């Protein structure tokens, strides 16, 4: 076995295979040097603080590519000024290598307006400041949502959430000041349901129950009854219930009378009003130092001192005692006194 291994033919084959392997490795590296242009290097030119146009021209002349990255705007530098590059100036790179340029943009990058509608004003201010926007004027408008953001305004136009604006732009906010008191309810009878809803919203009331006569929710049905009635005095934000039908209000007199008996209860004002008489209260007289009659001091009622039981005395027997009735005295009849007799024995007839 060992003799066959060290045979001259086997050794020749091993040597030939080694030569072929070394030749392939050498050719591979030579191809890599040619393909990657090994040894052909170009120094990176210093284009920092140049304008973007001049920096691109120098890189093109040096046979280098470029990628531009516009970072955050810095007002301390000129617009489109090259702030930094990578690789650093003087580094040797191959021809065609991309050089990354960090350029100062023309202005601040646009930011997206956050959705702050129906949000408390304090929280809305913080959200706008966090994205780089400023709060301008705060306009208060009657609304049910007190201290909540109703609308956003920019240059006099309504601003929608998600709009892109320049950083540090100023936004005006319309904030609710709360509902008004004692406001007249609009008359909605004769309008369609869609028109009534718009009228209710414009007067800052809330749409309550909407009852359709046929049970179908048709926005073109005509309002024939409402509660509270038109012209009533209510506070903004209260609900207005509606009754709608495809018929006109004149054709629904019976239905309106029935609803009036429920929602328009009449109070009899012909009855005499109940009078409540108040008992006059008399205050104690107050004497001033100038008055002649001095005030009488309040007499204090002395409470009797409690009697302490004497230990030496015997306990009194609390047996019931019989009380003798007093003897009744009968009235005595006195006889009339005798008349005096006349002297001399004379008798008078």
UniProtKB/TrEMBL annotation:
Top-rank taxon, per record: Bacteria
Chain coiled-coil ranges: none
PROSITE patterns per record: PASTA
Xref: InterPro entries: PASTA_dom
Segments forming domain PASTA: 39-105
Main enzyme class: transferase
Region (Disordered): 281-349
One family name in Pfam for this protein: PASTA
Bias-annotated ranges (Low complexity): 319-335
GO MF term list: protein serine/threonine kinase activity
Stretches that traverse the bilayer: 6-29
Keywords associated with the record: Kinase, Membrane, Transferase, Transmembrane, Transmembrane helix
EC numbers: 2.7.11.1
Protein name: Serine/threonine-protein kinase
């Amino acid at each position: 076995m060992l003799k066959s291994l060290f045979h001259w033919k086997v050794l020749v084959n091993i040597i030939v295979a080694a030569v072929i392997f070394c030749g392939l490795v050498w050719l591979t590296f030579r191809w890599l040097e040619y393909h990657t242009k090994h040894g052909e290097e170009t120094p990176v030119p210093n284009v920092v603080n140049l304008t973007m146009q001049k920096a691109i021209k120098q890189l093109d002349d040096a046979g280098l590519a470029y990628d531009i990255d516009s970072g955050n705007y810095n007002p301390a530098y000129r617009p489109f000024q090259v702030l930094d590059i990578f690789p650093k100036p003087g580094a040797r790179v191959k021809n065609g290598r991309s050089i990354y340029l960090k350029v100062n943009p023309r202005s601040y990058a646009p930011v997206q307006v956050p959705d702050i509608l129906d949000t408390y004003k304090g929280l809305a201010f913080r959200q706008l400041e966090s994205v780089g926007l400023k709060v301008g004027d705060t306009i208060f408008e009657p609304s049910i949502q007190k201290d909540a953001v109703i609308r956003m305004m920019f240059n006099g136009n309504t601003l929608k959430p998600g709009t892109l604006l320049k950083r540090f732009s100023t936004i005006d906010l319309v904030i609710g000041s709360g509902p008004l008191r004692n406001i007249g309810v609009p008359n909605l009878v004769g309008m369609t349901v869609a028109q009534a809803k718009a009228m209710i919203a414009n007067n800052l009331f809330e749409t309550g129950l909407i009852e359709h006569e046929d049970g179908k929710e048709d926005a073109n049905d005509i309002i024939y009854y409402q509660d509270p009635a038109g012209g009533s005095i209510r506070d903004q934000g209260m609900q207005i219930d509606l009754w709608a039908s495809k018929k006109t209000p004149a054709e629904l007199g019976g239905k309106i009378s029935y609803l009036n008996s429920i929602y328009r209860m009449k109070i009899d004002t012909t009855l005499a009003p109940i009078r409540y008489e108040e008992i006059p209260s008399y205050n104690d007289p107050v004497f001033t130092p100038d008055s002649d009659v001095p005030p009488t001091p309040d007499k204090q009622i002395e409470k009797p001192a409690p009697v302490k039981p004497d230990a030496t005395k015997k306990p009194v027997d609390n047996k019931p005692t019989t009380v003798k009735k007093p003897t009744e005295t009968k009235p005595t009849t006195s006889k009339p006194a005798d008349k005096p007799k006349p002297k001399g024995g004379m008798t008078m007839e």
